[in-house]
Amino acid sequence: MSETTPPVGGTDAGAPTAGAPASPLPEDTRPGLSRRGLLGLLGAGAAGLAAGAAGGVAGGMAISRATAAGGTDGVHVFFGAHQAGITTPVQDHLHFAAFDMMARTNRDDLVSLLQDWSYAAARMTQGLDVSASGSVGGSPEAPPDDTGEALGLPASSLTITIGVGPSLFQNADGDRYGIAARRPAGLERLPAFLGDDLDPALSDGDLCIQACADDPQVAVHAIRNLSRIAFGRARIRWSQLGFGRTSMTTTSQATPRNLFGFKDGTANILANDRAGLDEHVWVGASDEPAWMAGGSYLVARKIAMIIESWDRVRLSEQQRIIGRSKGEGAPLSGGGEFTQPDFRATDASGRTAIDAASHVRLAHPTLNDGVRIMRRGYNFVDGNNQLGRLDAGLFFLSYQRSPEQFVKIQRALSTDAMNEYVRHVGSGIWAVPPGASAASFVGAGLFA
């Protein structure tokens, strides 16, 4: 629920394509998953073949050629300088999943998994099945490559974003994948913050996938099929469904509201703020390690909101805690939603209009050495808890050039008046590599 300052101007490679729908190439030019990926769907544990990489490359090039000729609204290209799903216009639904690599897997298993995921993601983001055989084109005596629940549905602005966690670089088995020396210096498990009540079953993971779409079934289909492809190599550690975005990334989107009823993410960095993205979101060419240039760091925090207690708080107190009006979202110092807060302004009684412990003040860049982050959070409702209360809240997602940006802001929020009404129950951080070319796969630079 952090504030960031307003934007100033580029878009990532995940911007929607425009024009006439792309004509699918003949099926024989769009091969299926690698041999290992297909065997994984059948429950076998055979070793992957080098042909997996070739299949991914050929499939990627086919997709690129198709979209170069003109795409369709609601279609985001998987390949590009940056991964889609960061500055892409925030979709309405999320399925997020963290994965752990299986015991006894090796470097080749990790490489083949990222290759297979990249190939399948490149197809699904175009509205295609995970392979040429798809959900109905294979042998009737074998499980289909694709689960089929998205058959006939459009791409629905699907984006698939892949990240690698700290534990992938060094685990109980040591440097199992031979990449320990390539771990980014700042990629460490997040430190403990005041008020954390973290559930290990809802935290961390060797890998993560963020699937966002305007149709929840399309997002779920993506995670379901990427999980099947991972069989024998990785398994889901935990996952989260989200709805009702709680931030905007373009000027065409209105500021959404969180489950407390307040506008959320008013001052988010936007996709057209090229200077802001370069300074605060994208890892620079001069940053270390070099393989992360053009990537970013993703923080996920599952924040439970104590809805029933909040709903009994008088409006004036709710607004004092947030530091903004509930209706328009304007700072209590005056003006409209996008007016810069004035933390020195006073009210009629002579007191500071924006409380010193308000969320807006504590999270604002002017009080955090100019630190800003890009947010892509979602609301969640997971039914009721054991007390009969709503198990609901904010699934916070933020992208930043360095993990220290998030750490600084979160520590500043230790005295946030809103802490009485929220609990941080899940947490994780991942390095999100730059986007891949059609002749490669996401994360390839890690193994160069």
Low-confidence stretches: 1-11, 13-32, 34-72
| Beta-strand share of residues | 15-25%
Number of extended strands: 9
Computed Rg: 22 Å
What series of H and E elements makes up the topology? Answer: HHEHEEHEHEHHHEEEHE
Any overview of this molecule?
- The protein is built from nine helices and nine strands.
- The protein is an alpha+beta fold and about 450 residues long.
- Strands 1, 2, 3, 4, 5, 6, 7, 8 and 9 form a nine-stranded antiparallel beta sheet that branches.
- Strand 7 and strand 8 form a beta hairpin.
- Helix 2 packs parallel to helix 3.
- The chain is globular, with a radius of gyration of 22 Å.
List the helices and strands and how they pair.
Blueprint: H1 35-41, H2 51-68, E1 93-101, H3 107-124, E2 159-164, E3 207-213, H4 216-229, E4 234-245, H5 274-280, E5 296-305, H6 307-310, H7 315-322, H8 359-363, E6 374-375, E7 378-384, E8 390-400, H9 403-412, E9 422-432
Antiparallel strand pairs: 1-3, 1-4, 2-3, 4-7, 5-8, 5-9, 6-8, 7-8
Helix pairs in contact: 2-3
Which features would summarize this protein structure in a list?
alpha+beta, single chain, 448 residues, 9 helices
In a few lines, what is going on in this structure?
The chain has 448 residues and is an alpha+beta fold. 20% of the residues lie in helices and 17% in strands. A hairpin with a 5-residue loop joins strand 7 (378-384) and strand 8.
